[in-house]
TrEMBL record:
Phylogenetic lineage: Bacteria, Bacillati, Bacillota, Bacilli, Bacillales
Topology class, membrane: Multi-pass membrane protein
Keyword Cell membrane found: yes
Presence of keyword Cell membrane: yes
Predominant location: membrane
Regions crossing the membrane: 32-60, 72-96, 102-120, 206-226, 233-251, 263-280
Protein name, per record: Probable membrane transporter protein
Organism expressing this protein natively: Fictibacillus solisalsi
PANTHER family in the record: MEMBRANE TRANSPORTER PROTEIN MJ0441-RELATED (PTHR43701), MEMBRANE TRANSPORTER PROTEIN YTNM-RELATED (PTHR43701:SF12)
Amino acid sequence: MKKLIVLALIGLVAQLIDGSLGMAYGLTSTSLLLAFGIAPAVASASVHFAEVVTTAASGVSHIRFGNVDKKIIYRLIIPGSIGAFAGACFLSSLPGDIVKPYVSFFLLFLGFYILYRFLFKKNNKVTDHEKAFSRKQLIPLGLVAGFLDATGGGGWGPVATPVLLAKNGTSTRKVIGSVDTSEFAVALSATIGFLISLGWHQVNWMWVIALMAGGLIAAPIAAYLVKIIPSHILGVVVGGLIIFTNARTILQTVGVSGISLQSVYTILAVLWLAGIVYSIRKNKKTNNLSLSKRTG
């Protein structure tokens, strides 16, 4: 029962972060499931089963708050679904013990990328004129992001959202809302791929329901919070969480244990805390500058 409550809380926190950042539900949930010792394919399958419902709720919420660009959604759905289905079938065909360190390494890399993006990269300027993305840009993006999402248990948001935000003139909230809304089709396609490859019996449905319940509660809240919570602070928190949870698998794989393992954990924790403090101060400084410009 305690494990189910923990999983529900994981689903709730992950969806709050995902709905606010346009990324990290799958990464956060899969990283923690891997830390519980669950095989990569089963962990990714469980997360995607839950995401079918949570992304639907998140999409409806974003649509109601006007956080979507329909052109982006329509152009991402088909390639994203194809990539996710292929990724699910690929991951299911590999032995869990062999692929687990590689999945953790991929998640670790994305965790560092998220930290870099939200700590050091400047925010893109947003203008009233929103430039449309072409099919040539969105089709390969959807294929790659969908494939990585299924194989890593997360990756749709961390790949698609930063790429879309990199284009000046694109509304941040509409990028986040569009990525979250289109993720429903990606999660559904990955789920079908896992069902065909793994079968129903491999999935722990109680875990899925627990993750789903937490995500459903958080989805409408996150869609509203996307307008008011500083995204770079949440980005640093989730990036550090992903690094911390996946470092354990990688370190154990290469034979690090005992005092050395604890030392690495301590260093990571200190750096993570420093990043959060820096992000909070950066946000405060930005707010003060904005206030000075208004009053000046």
